[in-house]
Amino acid sequence: MSEASRRTRHRALVDSLSRAARRAGSATDEAERLTDSVLMRIARFRWGALLVVLIGLSFAVLSESTFQAMQREREEIDVSRLSLAALNNLVYDNALAVQTGGRYVEDPSPEHLERHLATVQRLADAAGFVLGWAVRRGIDPERVAIVKRLEAAESEELKRLKALPAGASPVEVMDALLPPVVDQGELRDALEPLVRTERAYLEEQMTLLGEEIERQRTAAIVAIAVGVLMLILLLRAYATRSQVEAQIADRLRAARDELDALVRVRTEELTELASHLQTEAERQKSALARELHDELGSILTASRMEASMLLRRARKRGSPDVESLARVCEILEQGVQIKRRVIEGLVPTVLTHLGLVPALESLADETRASAAPFELLLDLPESLEIDRDRAIAIYRVAQEALTNIRKHAEASRVWIAISVSDGHVRMTIRDDGVGMPEAARNKTGSHGLLGMKYRADALRGRFAIGPACPRGTLLEFALPVA
Asked: CA dist 343 to 88, 191, 281, 285, 339, Å?
């Protein structure tokens, strides 16, 4: 592919990336506009949630207050029922007390006495309860004077009976008994208005309780209806917001996927370009080395031969230019050596003429001769047949790795091994140095590592670098043999 067509492809790709970026920007702007359009809905959603909470709290407060009111009504009803029972039992207990007292007089036995004591005790308690109820209800004391007199008499009789010794005679017991102080008819006439009043009060409380229950039922229905309505509105607002967010996410995802696809294409193009540039650089190095070897080498060799010839003639004649000609010969010899070093730096002649294994051995000898701060150990096959491009790639990776180890690894020993298996030639380079931090591997500007990776990608190989065990760095470089 020509450079013009390659530049055209790169320019088209850049234009595609720009268009995709503009589409992604427009999708983002549209998403922001959609977000702005639903801001009020979101705001209503939040205020609606707050309103639902307030409604719930209000309903809870209303329920609690209503429950307390109903509880008070029920307590009043219970007290009223007990009061009615006490008023009704008061007449019965009074008659029963007269009856049990008479039975004891007829038959003074302990059983009759015990039954009379229980009746008097129940009558006194009922009278005391009625007096307490009258005080709480604010009843005129004159209306319960008869009850008060009855309670005082029965309490006195009960006190006298309990004060008797354990073995009291029937005569002593009869002396302690008091005659009835309240007539049965008189007591009934006095209590009947009180019973009617309390029954009316009980009916009133029952009516109030029914009304309170009805209000509570109505309030509960209204609160539940409002809560359900707000919940429906909130769910609808949430569904709308979720739908809008899903649309925004779909648009952004589509734009992102398009950008990712274009970035992958761009990365492949750049990788191909880098591989092409490396291949082109190696080709130009080879061409330059041939030019230096053929053209400059022949010029320097011919010049040195002519200068040597002139130097021999000048020595025979004793010419004063002998020293100058000798310096010229030395300078030409230095030029030849420089030319050789330049050619070796561009394309190693050992690699070109003898192959990869001798070239790596020569590289190891040069490294040892340069006073490297580490011991270099090789594990190479006796022979290795691979094409020129793969041989150059492996040689350059080894050369770059040794340079990096010398600069950064602080290693004392380095191992280089090459093996062939499964149709791949693999080179591993391991050192026992300080290792390579993770950040250094991904550091921007690490052209040496990137160059190794691009060499592997160009030849469909694999490159990896990581920590060695127990310390140091391990580099792996593998290429298919064919």
From this structure: 134, 138, 14, 9, 6
Q: How far apart are CA 176 and CA 153, in angstroms?
A: 12
Note if the pTM is more than 0.90: no
SS3 (DSSP) at 423: coil
DSSP string of 335-352? HHHHHHHHHHHHS-HHHH
Three-state secondary-structure class, residue 91: helix
When pLDDT is averaged across residues 445-466 and rounded to a whole number, the result is: 82
Model confidence at 188, in pLDDT bands (50, 70, 90)? confident
Reported as a single tens digit per residue, the pLDDT across 144-160 is 777 777 777 778 777 87
Q: For the chain, which domains are there?
A: 1-282 (no CATH), 348-480 (3.30.565.10)
Give the residue among 188, 193, 180, 202 at the shortest CA–CA distance from 90: 188
DSSP track, 144-180: GHHHHHHHHHHHHHHHHHHHS-TT--HHHHHHH----
The amino acid that residue 148 corresponds to is: K
What is the distance between the alpha carbons of residues 27 and 253, in angstroms, rounded to a whole number? Answer: 10
Other CB atoms closer than 10 Å to residue 31's CB: what's the count? 19
Cβ 392 vs Cβ 351: under 8 Å? yes
Task: Give the other-Cβ count within 10 Å of 451's Cβ.
Answer: 17
